[in-house]
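Shipment paperwork, digital attachment
Item: protein structure file
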Amino acid sequence: RLNEMAASYGLSGKSEILLYNDAYQLMEGSITNVAVIKRKENAEDQMRFVTPSLASGCLCGTMRYYLLKKNLIYENPIDIRDVKQGDTVILFNGVMGAVKGIIRQGFI
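Attachment content:
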């Protein structure tokens, strides 16, 4: 199904599916952790990458832990219904490192 969806967008490279829990909180990708770019609450002109909190059920991966400790990403619950087509994300794990991604299909 993922390959069919990627082909419909003309993509032949790597793709990922994002998973969410029963409370509609983003958890992780099928083989990666994820962070979504969001505006800072007190500084609307500044952006930061937010990763789901462990309470969502996401895996506490080694790359996720490293990025959190370096203050490159921040933890906060993410409602999957707020993640829209065209949003920028980073996908990461200990094997592939971190790569930029674009949401091609939002929550249905």
